[in-house]
Write a structure and sequence with these properties.
Shape: globular
Number of strands: 8
Structural class: alpha/beta
Strand content: 5-15%
Number of domains: 1
């Protein structure tokens, strides 16, 4: 895949995401960084105390109208296509109409939740066939739910293991954020280059989107992101230094239900650092279907 050098991007945007129901979420956080080593800065919601998912999409479109943007968002961009034994089974094994591409998957998720406002994606849990693949709230553990892992998650496990993408329950329930995120990807798909799914003919688009995993970035910098440790200023600065960034000021405090600002801040610095290195743009062929966590280095591109 084509390598996009750091100098081609003028803005790096780290977004800590949330799939929770409701128009505005305290768990949404946005930080930006320019080229160089300056510390990332917060971007505040245009109206109100908290960001909405739709407002974040508007912000990305607005920035991309002025400059080349690399934005990382914290959710799994697609589902695994392999079963636990390594055999290819598709996104929804056994489902006759399982999407064949990531773009088809995003379109399906958006269509099934079309009546749900604010990009909420939980409507799929009520689908008579597809609901079976999720571990959903309210004790609805589907009969087809399995702890399948994408190749990127298997590789990342050496540093920090991501949660299963179909799990939508509890603190490790990342699936709800992915459902909302896939709706966002579908709505941005005609405007952005979505890595690593899209063909080279969209590389010239000013907005590039990549999947991020903030806990992985902290772990890579030698910090265990548990019990709020990643929200401590000393640990934030350690992670920033690892990614070649200046430190936050002595009065900085990371806000958010789970120190979400720390995740977005460090992710913006990590995006800038990873993007300058060609190794991180080279991923296996499976990533065209499953996606890839930006910053996880693959040994078999």
């Amino acid at each position: 895949m084509a390598h996009i050098a750091e100098r081609e991007f003028e803005l790096f945007v780290g977004i800590d995401w949330s799939g929770a129901k409701g128009p505005r979420q305290p768990g949404l956080s946005v930080f930006t960084a320019g080229p160089g080593n300056s510390v990332p800065e917060p971007v505040f919601p245009p109206d109100g105390r908290y960001w909405s998912r739709l407002a974040i999409l508007d912000y990305l479109r607005f920035q991309a109208a002025k400059k080349r943007v690399l934005a990382g968002i914290d959710f799994a961009f697609a589902y695994p296509v392999s079963d636990r034994d390594g055999s290819i089974c598709g996104y929804f094994p056994g489902y006759q109409h399982s999407p064949e591409t990531a773009h088809d998957l995003w379109k399906l998720i958006d269509r099934l939740n079309a009546e749900r406002p604010d990009l909420y994606g939980g409507g799929i849990w009520d689908h008579p066939q597809l609901g079976a693949y999720y571990n959903a709230p309210g004790g609805r553990r589907g009969t087809a739910f399995a702890s399948r892992r994408r190749l990127a998650e298997q590789v990342a496990r050496e540093v920090k293991s991501p949660s299963p993408t179909f799990n939508c329950v509890g603190p490790a329930g990342v699936g709800t954020g992915s459902l909302a995120g896939m709706r966002a990807l579908h709505q941005l798909s005609s405007f952005a280059h979505i890595w690593p799914f899209d063909n080279p003919d969209t590389v010239s688009r000013p907005l590039h989107l990549v999947e991020i995993f903030p806990s992985y970035y902290f772990a890579l910098a030698g910090i265990k992101p548990v019990n709020g440790a990643h929200g401590e200023r000393e640990n934030i600065n350690q992670a920033l230094a690892f990614f070649g960034s200046d430190s936050v000021s002595t009065d900085f405090e990371a806000n958010g239900p789970d120190h979400d600002e720390a995740d977005a801040l460090v992710s913006a610095a990590a995006l800038r650092w990873f993007s300058a290195q060609s190794d991180f743009w080279s991923v296996p062929a499976e990533a065209r279907a499953e996606g890839w966590i930006f910053g996880v280095k693959s040994a078999t591109p």
